[in-house]
Amino acid sequence: MLEAMEDRVDRMPNCMRIRGSTVEHPFGTIKSWLGPTHFQMKTLKHVSTVMSLHVLAYNLKRMLQISGAVPLMEAMRA
To answer: Is 70 exposed, middle or buried (0-12, 13-18, 19+ CB in 10 A)?
Structure first.
């Protein structure tokens, strides 16, 4: 798996730069929200649930900043 990833990175040298600008910022923000304790739950099922809730909260907060509350509520009703 690691060799396949290295091959992809070698074929597309800018992919890590793109990833850093699009993916790493949300994960860093969510990590700062969690604080030093990170996850209180154990097992992959529970951690996955908690992470999904954090991602949902991040996405909702981002959409509120981009479009505002009224357009977001209208979009959710549609």
So the answer is: exposed
> What is the pLDDT, as a whole number, of residue 9?
84
Parse the chain into domains and list their residue ranges: 1-34, 39-78
> Per residue, what are the HEC states of the chain?
CHHHHHHHHHHCCCHHHHHHHHCHHHHHHHHHHHCCCCCCCCCHHHHHHHHHHHHHHHHHHHHHHHHCHHHHHHHHHC
pLDDT at 45: 92
Residue matched to tokens 């992470």: 51
Spell out a b/e string for 15-50, using b for 16 or more CB atoms within 10 Å of the CB, else e.
Answer: eeeeeeeeeeeeeeeeeeeeeeeeeeeeeeeeeeee
Average pLDDT on 32-44 reads 79
